[in-house]
Design a protein that fits this description.
alpha+beta, Heat Shock Protein 90, five-stranded mixed beta sheet, 6 helices, about 15% strand
């Protein structure tokens, strides 16, 4: 009887050690990924300082923003309890506000109580999509130093999906125009591909509206 208990205890101890080892390996891998991303940000920053043309500077700033979002999401991996869509979108909106404020544009985040949680891959992808669509609005929806407001909203859609919307009160556009006006380097087609990667979809504005809708499938427990 004692041998049986000892055997069970040994197996339990080995499993516990394996769990700890796996956790250490994951944290170490995550730490190295963050270091690599920070190195990329440093290289992009250096190139931005050396860039001459406005177009090149804009492209590098866009790339920096995207890498920064990935770096922040990696930081959240160190704190799984904080890996939530509202935290990630709050960081994105704060970053967008820093660029929009000089043009008197306000970026707002509205989150309705949601009973669902998302996995880290989906959270990161949604944050990147929101950044792209809101950045596009900052660039194209407010002309001639016109100020305004961009609103990012999150709510439950049904038992299977969360909905994230991006809207603004800038100048109106027709649907064919917005399809062409995707930001350099990451167009609407790629935004939709990103959504498809986690089983979601991006719904462009219908005629007469300016609201993009992202439907995000929830994590099944």
């Amino acid at each position: 009887m004692m041998d049986k208990i000892t055997g069970i205890s040994s197996r339990h101890g080995a499993a516990s050690r394996q769990t700890i080892d796996d956790g250490l390996l994951l944290r170490e891998t995550n730490h190295r990924c963050k270091n690599d991303l920070q190195l990329v940000m440093g290289m992009l920053t250096l190139q931005l300082r050396r860039a001459k043309s406005a177009e090149t500077k804009d492209a590098l700033r866009d790339a920096l923003t995207r890498v920064e979002i990935l770096t922040r999401s990696r930081t959240l991996f160190d704190h799984p309890d904080q890996m939530s869509l509202d935290v990630a979108l709050r960081q994105v909106c704060e970053g967008l506000q820093a660029h929009a404020e000089v043009r008197s544009i306000i970026v707002m985040l509205k989150i309705a109580a949601t009973r669902h949680r998302l996995d880290s891959k989906t959270v990161t992808a949604v944050a990147l999509i929101v950044n792209e669509l809101a950045t596009n609005a900052i660039k194209h929806a407010f002309a001639n130093e016109q100020g305004g407001k961009i609103t990012v909203s999150v709510r439950d859609f049904n038992d299977a999906h969360i909905v994230v919307t991006i809207d603004d009160d800038g100048i109106p556009f027709e649907l064919p125009v917005v399809l062409r006006r995707s930001s350099p380097g990451l167009g609407l087609d790629l935004v939709m591909r990103m959504a498809a990667s986690f089983g979601g979809m991006v719904i462009p504005p219908s005629n007469g509206t300016k609201t993009f809708e992202i439907r995000v499938p929830v994590t099944r427990s």
